[in-house]
Amino acid sequence: MRNAFAETLTQLAQEDPRLVLLSGDIGNKLFDNFKKIDPNRFYNCGVAEANMMGVAAGMALNGLRPVIYTITPFTTTRCFEQIRVDVCYHQAPVVIVGTGSGLSYAELGPTHHSLEDMAILRTLPGMCVLAPCDATELELMLRAALQQDRPVYIRIGKKGEPAIHAHQPSLRIGEAIVVQEGSEVALLSAGIVMPEVLKAAALLKEQGIAAEVVSFHSIKPLDTAYLQQADKRFKLLVTIEEHGLIGGLGGAVAEWRAHHNATVPLLCLGTPDQFMHEIGSQKYAQVKYGLEAEQIAGRVLAGVPGLRARIVA
Known about the structure:
The chain is an alpha/beta fold. It is 36% helix and 19% strand. β11, α10 and β12 form a beta-alpha-beta unit. α8 packs across α12. It is globular.
């Protein structure tokens, strides 16, 4: 995903001279082609992310279109006050990109995990929170984000994520994308966990359950139109995310469900209210927190009302 981000941003910089890139001391080689366009539009702000956020806000308020890029916890939790006061309070159109989101950097320990970012940023007035599932969504999302006159946060993976969309979908902020149609349960996925969700849907099909797989790439604004029709169509809604169970996609859908008296049962899959103290790969972390395909399918099978199905071992 990060390579797609660099390539798309470089193309957009050729189209829009207002676009500037600020990096928190990472990705210098990644942005070599961007710097060839105009080295004066790339700023390595060092390990001073709070200052970087203030600089970006000032640029945005003076007519530029700044994009911030660094590892997710360092561009969110480390400078939350500056995002709140400098960016959101002034409605500055800053695009904040967090790379290595969720458990992508599981092997580097809790300092590099980002399991709270969507929760804290969607509380901020005017902030848009997005989580693309693959490079195609990211490319479309970045273009859409730069058309917004408000702050936008995009959490992305690291590298090597598989392509989900065989053809370029129509992407609009606030509208979910149906990746695979189904009729009994809806699997609402946010971000880079999508490959496991599609595998889980295939396992459910083997058990006779038609699962609809949806890329809920827009956590704020939420696609409430989809949720309204889903409340009538499905036996179960399931949210899946590499994010804490408090306040992420699952929290957003649960809030909608409570406020609209929805009747469809809701199952939220994510990470529990704890830090991961072990060191392991992203796959290890997914298994630990029940986010591997077999585990997802098993939880869904156990939660589908009125269906007798064998739980996947």
